[in-house]
Write a structure and sequence with these properties.
Blueprint lengths: L3 E5 L3 H15 L6 E5 L48 H5 L9 H14 L6 E2 L2 E9 L4 E8 L4 E7 L1 E4 L21 E4 L13 E5 L3 H12 L4 E6 L12 E5 L1 E5 L2 E4 L4 E3 L2 E4 L27 E2 L3 E2 L5 E3 L9 H15 L8 H16 L4 H16 L9 H17 L33 H5 L4
Parallel strand pairs: 1-2, 1-7, 2-3, 7-18, 8-15, 9-10, 9-15, 10-11
Antiparallel strand pairs: 4-5, 5-6, 12-13, 13-14, 16-17
């Protein structure tokens, strides 16, 4: 068994990994020394909301992409920790679509309950990771941003849990250099009220574009134009939001689109996705992938094919989030503890190819939900993560897809049942489209 393990990042993935090790320790297992490095001053990863954009107080790129007024865009029942339920944490049933502050409280609540903060070194940025073949060790160079000191430590195993929604993909369009308004990536979006009374252009056709279009209109934008590259999202948008083909150029404040139409806009938000960026990892260990449901070169979606002692958590495109991170963390833990043995390089490569072949056969979101649910089931069978009704979450996700097409402003008003406890969520006291207060106190008060 490894004697030293490094976990990079204390967001949902990193905290899941620390929880997994701590639960094994409490059950009597011999657990190696685990050290988690977190460059921010607190835990939570993307859920650790900050007003900052661009660079942080230490001159590093800001990690967070979280914005005010964000509410869960999927049923909380599909991300519920099987070992720490919403009922347990809040002491009461809560609605299915919580706001940011409530989800942050839940994520960090389990970490507090398991006392994993003791394993985290905050304000400690990982600058470089390499592997010494002869020594069979990873060299991890970190910098303490409190005192600006750098040191290198050796580890037997490394688990990368930094996420992949922090390095924005930034396209450019003709005329951007002369546009008189604000141009920003969704990574830097913080407050929808900034665009009150303005004509906003949103470029993109995925979750960020969908949510930022809705948020800005909800909080007073004069109009929102959503520009798509391949196909429109096709939701029944409320008045004031519409979709057009891809932006072709900007002439002053006039945006011109591929279908020949044009309109004047005051600001532009690029909801154009993120890069999997691991510039702190040496070339031979660095994951390079698009945002897909099954990245290549990761056995079980976790183990680096070239060196399985390096593990990546949460690198998939995601329907499932926290529960997937948990199952990956349990699997990684059991490999570290010697409970799971990995097959040969050739067998791992063949398994990756099999899963990616299955992914190629998916024809839309419903197939993709089944694909990722099957991936979770495959991991579950080999670990002792508490059981829950995966098939129910699969059904919830499919209902959620239909709900969004029926009412993009009303789908968050639906209620779902817990796959862990069976609890049916109450309906929030105020419809989401008219609820302007996203505080935890207001959300939890007077539930029906």
């Amino acid at each position: 068994m490894a004697s030293r393990v490094a976990v990079i990042g204390a967001g949902p993935c990193g905290l899941a990994q620390l929880d997994a090790f701590e639960q094994a320790r409490r059950q009597g297992a011999e657990v190696p020394q685990v050290t988690c490095f977190e460059k921010q001053s607190d835990w939570g990863g993307l859920w650790n909301y900050t007003w900052r954009t661009g660079l942080d107080e230490h001159g590093d790129p800001v990690h967070g992409s979280m914005y005010r007024y964000l509410w869960s865009n999927g049923p909380k029942e599909c991300l519920e920790f099987a070992d720490y339920t919403f009922d347990e944490h809040f002491g009461q049933p809560i609605p299915s679509f919580p706001p940011r502050e409530v989800l942050y409280d839940y994520i960090t609540g389990r970490a507090r309950a398991n006392n994993v903060r003791q394993f985290i070194q905050f304000n400690t940025a990982v600058r470089w990771i390499s592997y010494d073949e002869k020594a069979g060790k990873f060299a991890v160079t970190v910098q303490s941003t409190d005192d600006d000191r750098t040191r290198t430590e050796e580890f037997d195993k490394v688990i990368v849990a930094t996420g992949h929604f922090s390095t924005p993909n930034m396209p450019s369009f003709e005329g951007f250099d002369q546009f008189p308004g604000r141009i920003m990536h969704s990574h830097d979006f913080r407050d929808a009220q900034e665009f009150s009374g303005k004509r906003l252009l949103v470029i993109g056709s995925s979750y960020s574009a969908e949510d930022i279009a809705l948020q800005t209109k909800k909080y007073g934008a004069r109009s929102v134009t959503v520009s798509y590259r391949t196909q429109p999202m096709g939701f029944p948008w409320p008045a004031g939001i519409d979709e057009v083909p891809l932006l072709s150029r900007v002439d002053g404040s006039t945006a011109h689109f591929a279908d020949g139409t044009a309109r004047d806009v005051d600001a532009i938000v690029l909801c154009t996705g993120y890069q999997h960026s691991f510039r702190f990892i040496s070339d031979e260990l660095r994951l390079r992938t698009a945002n897909v449901l099954y990245p290549g070169h990761l056995y079980k979606g976790v183990f680096w094919l070239g060196n399985p002692d390096l593990m990546y958590l949460g690198m998939q495109d995601q329907y499932y989030t926290f529960t997937m991170f948990d199952t990956q963390a349990w699997y990684a833990r059991d490999y570290v503890l010697g409970r799971i043995s990995l097959p040969s390089h050739e067998e791992m490569a063949a398994d990756i190819a099999l899963w990616r072949g299955r992914l190629d056969e998916c024809e839309g979101p419903l197939d993709e939900i089944d694909f990722q649910a099957s991936y979770l089931v495959d991991l579950h069978k080999d670990v002792d993560y508490p059981s829950y009704d995966v098939d129910l979450t699969r059904a919830h996700f499919k209902d959620w897809e239909h709900d969004k097409m029926a009412s993009i402003t009303g789908y968050r008003d639906r209620a779902f049942s817990s796959p862990c406890t069976g609890t049916i969520a109450p309906v929030h006291h105020t419809p989401w489209w008219t609820e302007l207060d996203d505080s935890k106190a207001t959300f939890l008060a007077n539930q029906t």
